[in-house]
Design goal:
heterodimer; A: about 180 residues; mainly alpha; B: five-stranded antiparallel β-sheet
Chain lengths: ~180, ~375
């Protein structure tokens, strides 16, 4: 196995642990989330998820670790969730063959993407979103470390998009209930 | 605990610099130009043989010439296409004939090496690069072939042993739907250009540019007005190459064409060839004589396997030979692979009635009808 395969398998175990820690299990939810990780690795569940959805992004991994660690509210709030969904809404259809331009290809020689991330970092700095600056730093470090051939894969993945959708739908549902 | 304000921007700046340092900045791509055309003096000959059977159902052969001159073949076989017991099999042709096939990629081995579930494997591609023999093959975790991921393994001993396969990252959506079928071509920077295709929702050819270390540094779409699959590429000079594609759209198909004039940076569609394509895989080879050779099925379907020649770099084509023909429309002679060995001998491998892989060896004189 290579380092990317190992990363993907380990990261999926953490993601499964984070999902378990989200369950309404009383005060033991974090402990059960941590216990779920080795179970996911050695039961084959992490490998199954790895086969189905590919390598998780570093963004998702950091959010999963954040969730298990219980370090306060998730950084994946409304605005970041909409940014993830908007990015996916453009990236996935074009990369899957809609039109002739493939934005995913940009991620193999990611100079324009690095410039865009630099510009986003300026905005994050002005908004005092150090949490997302650190998450982007981790994603860039993952790419620099050779875990990803394509920078897009370090930044975003379908499970992260599902999480973002859950955040947006949950917020809308709460507003409707409150209204 | 509150982090100091300078920490996040500093870490970000360091990570951005590291990512920029790692991002590739490859030179403009160019092909290794083909050697000057030389006539093949060999007399006309033609021989065929079925490869030893590996399993009841066999499909999708690939060919390569090893450093020692042996011909290597890989194909997938099992109880039926897509079954869990399907493996990629490998055999070589030496002085004593074909060796017994040996499984070189299985779903279990692929899953163990990639730490990711794999339900089936298929579509091998072989390429010999000096002493290194490359194998690309697809694995699927969910669904049909459209859910394929591309894997890569290398052998340094002529296929006796292989590195654990690694899964290439070629798609942002579940890393699916990149399949290979035809061999790569050599690039001037020491890398390879690998023709692949995408078939989840849209169906089109693609081009992966690989650096000398195997890392993907570019991916280019081969846009066509119709659904196409399985590009096969022949290099004409340092910047110019021709790709032919399987026509997967409705109605009577023709062999589709894409050309590049800039070393593979763009692959615009060109006029389709006046050759039929009943939605089946085609193989393309530039011969040492400079002629181009295509193997593919006739208009009637996969029950007829033909060879076409072009003497003018693909502008015009004529039928050179009928390799197989059966009146039964259910008969299948398909998925050809072509190779010209260093000794000038032309090798063709193809799916024979789904029961096995057949190998034909012939000279260019046999193709052109000299002394036939």
């Amino acid at each position: 196995m290579n380092a990317t395969a190992l990363y993907g398998w380990l990261a999926h175990g953490v993601v499964i642990g984070a999902l378990v820690s989200l369950l309404p299990l009383g005060g033991k939810h974090r402990l059960l989330g941590m216990a779920a990780m080795p179970l996911a690795w050695f039961s084959g569940l992490a490998a199954l998820l790895h086969g189905f959805v590919g390598t998780p992004s570093v963004t998702l991994l950091v959010l999963a670790i954040w969730q298990i660690a219980g370090r306060g509210p998730s950084p994946l709030g409304q605005r970041p969730a909409w940014l993830v969904i908007g990015t996916a809404a453009v990236l996935y259809p074009l990369a899957l063959g809609l039109g002739s331009f493939d934005p995913y290809a940009v991620g193999y020689q990611p100079w324009p993407l690095l410039l865009a991330i630099g510009a986003l970092a300026v905005v994050l700095l002005r908004c005092r979103r150090e949490d997302w600056l650190l998450i982007l730093s981790a994603a860039l470090a993952g790419y620099a470390g050779g875990q990803f051939a394509n920078l897009w894969d370090a930044l975003i993945d379908p499970l992260l998009v599902l999480a973002a959708l859950a955040v947006v739908v949950g917020q809308l549902a709460r507003r409707r209930t409150a209204g | 605990m509150t982090l100091p304000r300078w920490l996040a921007p500093t870490l970000f700046a360091l990570a951005l610099a590291a990512a920029a340092w790692r991002a590739p900045f490859p030179v403009a791509p160019a092909f290794v130009p083909p050697p000057p055309a030389v006539a093949d003096p060999a007399p006309a000959y033609f021989s065929t043989a079925l490869l030893p059977t590996a399993a009841p159902s066999a499909h999708a052969a690939a060919l390569a010439e090893l450093a020692d001159g042996r011909i290597a073949a890989a194909w997938f076989a099992g109880t039926r296409e897509g079954a869990a017991d399907v493996a990629v099999w490998y055999a070589t042709l030496g002085a004593a004939g074909w060796t017994a096939p040996r499984a070189i990629a299985t779903r279990e081995g692929t899953a163990a090496a990639t730490l990711a579930y794999a339900r089936k494997v298929g579509n091998p591609v072989l390429y010999a690069e000096g002493e290194r023999l490359h194998l690309w093959f697809v694995s699927v975790a969910l669904g049909g072939w459209a859910g394929s991921s591309l894997n890569h393994a290398v052998s340094g001993d002529g296929g006796a042993s292989w590195s654990p396969p690694t899964r290439l990252q070629t798609s942002p959506f579940l890393n699916i739907s990149t399949l290979g079928r035809a061999p790569p071509v050599a690039l001037a920077d020491g890398g390879l250009g690998l023709p692949v295709y995408h078939e989840f929702i849209a169906k089109h050819g693609e081009w992966l540019r690989l650096a000398p270390d195997g890392r993907i540094v570019d991916k280019v779409r081969m846009p066509q007005g119709r659904r196409t699959l399985q590009p096969a590429v022949a290099v004409l000079d340092g910047q110019h190459a021709l790709a032919i594609l399987r026509d997967n759209d409705t109605g009577p198909g023709r062999i589709r064409v894409a050309t590049t004039l800039d070393g593979g940076q763009h692959w615009p569609a060109a006029d389709a060839l006046p050759l039929p394509n009943p939605n089946s895989s085609v193989a393309l080879l530039r011969l040492k004589s400079g002629r181009l050779l295509i193997a593919g099925n006739g208009a009637s379907g996969r029950n007829q396997l033909l060879l076409w020649l072009s003497d003018d770099a693909g502008k015009t084509w004529h039928t050179a030979a009928t390799v197989e023909s059966d009146a039964d429309p259910q008969a299948e002679f398909s998925y050809p692979a072509l190779l010209q060995a260093r000794d000038g001998r032309i090798h063709l491998a193809y799916t024979w009635r789904r029961q096995g892989i057949k190998h034909a060896a012939f000279s260019e004189a046999w193709l052109t009808g000299d002394a036939r």
